[in-house]
Amino acid sequence: MADATIWWLVAGGAIVAELLTGTFYLLMLALGFAAAAIAAHLGAGTVQQTVVAAAVGGGAVLGWHLLRGRRANGPPARANRNVNMDIGETVMVEAWLPDGTGSVHYRGARWTVIHRPGVVPVTGPHRVAEVIGNRLLVEKL
After folding, report:
1. For the residues of the chain, what is the DSSP string, one character each?
2. What is the pTM of this model?
3. Domains annotated on the chain, with CATH
4. Which of 26, 81, 108, 118 could form a disulfide with 18 if both were Cys (CB 3.0 to 4.6 A apart)?
5. DSSP state of 79
6. 84-135 residue pLDDT tens
7. Any alpha helices (H) in 71-90, and if so which ranges?
């Protein structure tokens, strides 16, 4: 079996493993294996093919790792408007109970609202900041 065929099979195996596990780094390694296969097609020796696979695959893994580290993390899912459509909506809190909760009518149902710790609760319009279980954490507008 030709060297290029072996490299292509290893690259395909890495892609299949990535699809099964969801580890994006395996795609970077598959890129290195594909580069080694191309090097084999161009007539490079086994050592050169291995060096190409290590350099391209390792460089891609390192590059992806550095790129991921620079991206800022977004808010958690319970406070992310892209995940939960309730975040940012306005509710009217008529009264607060002594335990720090309140009740609002929102989207056709009664919801329990809570406020952030250390904040003095006041009535009036509030913005939904987070959804914690079946409670809305609200902030005064």
Report:
1. --HHHHHHHHHHHHHHHHHHH--THHHHHHHHHHHHHHHHHTT--HHHHHHHHHHHHHHHHHHHHHHHHHSPP---GGG-TTT-TTTT-EEEE--B-TTSEEEEEETTEEEEEEE-TTPPP--EEEEEEEEETTEEEEEE-
2. 0.54
3. 1-72 (no CATH), 77-140 (2.40.50.140)
4. 26
5. G
6. 888 999 999 999 999 889 999 998 999 999 998 888 889 999 999 999 988 9
7. none
